[in-house]
Write a structure and sequence with these properties.
Elements lengths: L3 E8 L6 H14 L4 E8 L6 H11 L3 E6 L5 H10 L5 E4 L11 H9 L4 E9 L4 H17 L8 E8 H9 L7 H7 L4 E8 L11 H15 L2 H29 L9 H34 L6 E5 L3
Parallel strand pairs: 1-2, 1-4, 2-3, 5-7
Antiparallel strand pairs: 3-8, 4-6, 5-6
């Protein structure tokens, strides 16, 4: 029986590159004729002509499936919806901006046929990205791996090929805020790092501004680590020791009549500022965990589908 490859492509305001992206991915899949294929475009609440273009494309090719959200729910939600509706023996996740070359898919399929369950793209070079983005990405992965109990490969994104059995496991996970690249590492199975050079965006602007990068980073850290909560306890313990040390120093200075302190002012100010900072930091970290618990207990859907095309 002929195997099937599903390609999940999240899109948000990609009218400038959508037609080229569709043709490149389709041409790549049609060259490997020994496999059937489907392309699942997930429109994440685009405000341009992306949906209209997808409707036109899907009318010409029944292998093109479209899921359209009622509003923008975010990249991870779009990928989650795409893999949920995929029917292939393996699923490729790739963005529409062509920074991740579709031409690599046949080689990833070969690695999958060799027995690897997850083949994730590892960027050995990233073109067209600012020094700030490269630095923050490096800091993110270092921080995440320092805090997490599961090692998440550095310089990776969502570009990967995943076996159906791994997809089934991911789909069964009920959590709301899914950090997918972390989950794919957490589930285990046989994984392979496929190194490649990431290109510049063909056109348009990045859909991951600083605000979304920050949310992705906090989702990743909080989803895979409770160490920040333990760090809060350690900081609290250290501040108690420090406050005792300040008290002892003040008493010694007073008893020896060193007169090197303004009576009461230094110790009070140090104590107030130090404890205020620790309390605010602690409240922020704890509130992030509580907000995730709140999201999970409300049981609201991760996304809402407005329209489906060529899907049963």
């Amino acid at each position: 029986m002929m195997k099937k490859i599903s390609v999940v492509i999240p899109v948000y305001n990609e009218e400038e590159v959508l037609e080229i992206s569709y043709k490149k991915i389709k041409d790549t899949l049609e060259k490997i004729s020994e496999y059937k294929y489907e392309m699942i475009f997930v429109n994440d609440g685009s405000k341009d002509r992306t949906l209209q273009m997808l409707e036109y494309i899907s009318r010409k090719n029944e292998n093109i499936k479209v899921i359209s959200f009622s509003r923008n729910f975010g990249h991870q939600a779009a990928v989650t919806a795409g893999i949920k509706y995929s029917t292939g023996d393996a699923v490729v996740i790739i963005d529409a901006d062509l920074q991740d070359p579709p031409e690599l898919i046949p080689e990833m399929i070969k690695l999958w046929e060799d027995g690897n369950d997850v083949i994730y793209g590892k960027r050995k070079k990233r073109k067209g990205e600012s020094a700030f983005k490269l630095l923050t990405a490096k800091m993110f992965y270092k921080t995440l791996n320092a805090l997490s109990d599961v090692e998440i490969p550095k310089d990776t994104g969502d570009f990967r090929l995943v076996d159906k059995k791994v997809i089934d496991v991911i789909n069964e996970m009920p959590e709301h805020n899914k950090f997918l690249r972390g989950l794919f590492s957490w589930v285990g199975f046989k994984q392979y790092a496929y190194e490649y050079q990431r290109d510049e965006r063909l056109s348009g602007k990045t859909k991951y501004p600083l605000k979304k990068m920050w949310k992705l980073a906090t989702d990743g850290i909080i989803s895979f680590s409770t160490k920040p909560l333990k760090i809060v306890g350690s900081i609290g313990f250290l501040t108690i020791i420090l406050s005792i040390a300040i008290l002892i120093y003040s008493l010694i200075s007073y008893s020896l009549k060193l007169n090197n302190l303004t009576p009461g002012w230094t110790s009070i100010m140090v104590a107030i500022t130090l404890f205020s900072g620790v309390q605010l930091l602690s409240i922020w970290i704890i509130s992030e965990y509580i907000s995730r618990i709140y999201d999970e207990t409300r049981k609201r859907p991760q996304y809402i589908i407005d329209k489906k095309i060529n899907l049963d």
